[in-house]
Amino acid sequence: MKIAVLNGSPKGDLSVTIRSVRYMELHEPDHTFDMIQVASVINRIEKDEEYFNAIMQRISEADAVLFAFPLYVMLVPAQFKRFIELIFERNAEKHFKGKYAASISTSVHFMDHIANNYIHAIAEDLGMQFLGSFSAHMQDLLKEDEQKRLLQFTSFFLETIRKKPVIQPLNPQVHHLTPPYNPASPVTPVNPGNLRILILTDRMAPDSNCAKMVDRLNETFRGKATVAEIPDIGMKGGCLGCCRCGYDNTCVYTDGFSEWYRNNLLASDIIILAGEIHDRFLSSGFKQILDRSFFMGHIPAFKGKTIGYLVSGPLSENPVLMEFFRAFTDSEGVLSGRIISDESDDPAEIDRRIDSFAASLLDSAESGYIPPPTFYAVSGHKIFRDMIWGGMGAIFRADHRYFKRNRLYDFPQYQYRQRIQSLFLTCILAIPSARQSVFLRMKEHMVEAHDRVLEDSMR
Q1: Which of 45, 102, 279, 401 is most buried per CB count within 10 Å?
Q2: NADPH-dependent FMN reductase-like domain: which residues (predicted)?
Q3: In the beta sheet, which residues pair with residue 311?
Q4: Using CA atoms, how far apart are residues 443 and 402, in angstroms rounded to an integer?
């Protein structure tokens, strides 16, 4: 069989992900793995339609497609995202329709499920039958057990293609037709005071829903928000994955993005991401902003800021995008995280949403309230803590300094009081009579310390 491998790594063949694909290829010599460079040559693909068509022809000739990519900020790299957009923009879905597909990715497992779910949904949007994701840690290929697991996946993938089963789609179809929005009611203005507000958006047609929503939002802020269009930032390209920024947060690019990021984005108190849905996410331009922000490493640069999301398109039909917003908000430790969209037939309803959105962002910024961290933030912290403390600390030296300065190396073995208490309780519970006594009053024991807090509050 012939497998078309779409290489979504900006590093081309110098990719950890592609090493796993090569391992698959070496152990399946009877099958052809056609390596198609995508992310590393995205500029040529955009400009040269004949080159794009040649890629589509190679996909048409394949029996199945393997999406191969590293994770960049919880999703595929922006360059790969742009390639996916081009497939739909150039009506090239027919080359994928009916084929079997799977994905292989490498990461440190931080939100890898979001990227896998995104590719799963994209494959089904292309009319493909998706067989599953192989989501590996970037060092897994060095381990014998993981090599065996990879070969098991390879065998499963190829054997399933041979058997040609029917695979039920799991993602609801997205309807991209949104009713035109024209403001229908007077603006209810709010006073931002000295708060600095930045609205980051694509460059859109003035008559688009998103442009009109942004205009109304800025009116609500009494025109005091700065509207930054992504093309004006002047990025020369997407993140290259070189990790040279890890030592001192200095990006290899000298296009001014790092300065803009620090002096404009991070200098703002309220940041609003305003964009249209492209396939199952925002535009590749937004993804490029997120990827390039990695020059800050694993430091939560937005911590304490207020972030809002204004979306034009079928947001409620895009669970991947909504989960990305939730994960980003939680893991960055930001205020608010409100989301609004133009999903309504009633323009007045959208007007009210925008006005309420603006007011709630101001309230959030003034309150300083950051919600307690949930699974996204807690798990992310542990993953990055262990990674930076371990082998990656030498490369990501800026992260190490930040974690050390902010006492984020909070390993459980350093919690001596809890360890002593646990050891003492373990010894007590080893005595049958004591164990029975404790278990009989377990519910009371669980709230004893909390009751003392309540008693102290009443004094």
Answers
A1: 102
A2: 1-133, 196-313
A3: 275, 341
A4: 40
DSSP at 301 = T
The reply to whether 2-163 and 197-367 are identical in fold is yes
- Domain boundaries defined on the chain: 2-163, 197-367, 415-458
| Residues ≥6 apart with Cβ < 8 Å to 312 | 178, 208, 209, 210, 213, 275, 276, 277, 341, 342
| Cα torsion through 11, 14, 17, 19, rounded to 10 | 160
Q: Which own/partner pairs from 398-406 qualify as long-range (CB within 8 Å, at least 24 positions apart)?
A: 398/245, 398/246, 398/247, 398/248, 398/249, 398/297, 398/299, 399/246, 399/297, 399/298, 399/299, 402/297, 402/299
For 197-367, CATH gives 3.40.50.360
pLDDT tens per residue, range 220-274: 999 999 999 999 999 999 999 999 999 999 999 999 999 999 999 999 999 999 9
pTM attached to this predicted model: 0.94
At the top level of CATH, the class of 2-163 is: alpha beta
Between helices 432-440 and 416-429, what is the axis angle to 10°? 110
CB 193 within 8 A of CB 226: no
pLDDT tens digit sequence for 182-217: 999 999 999 999 999 999 999 889 999 999 999 999
Confidence of residue 292 (pLDDT cuts 50, 70, 90): very high
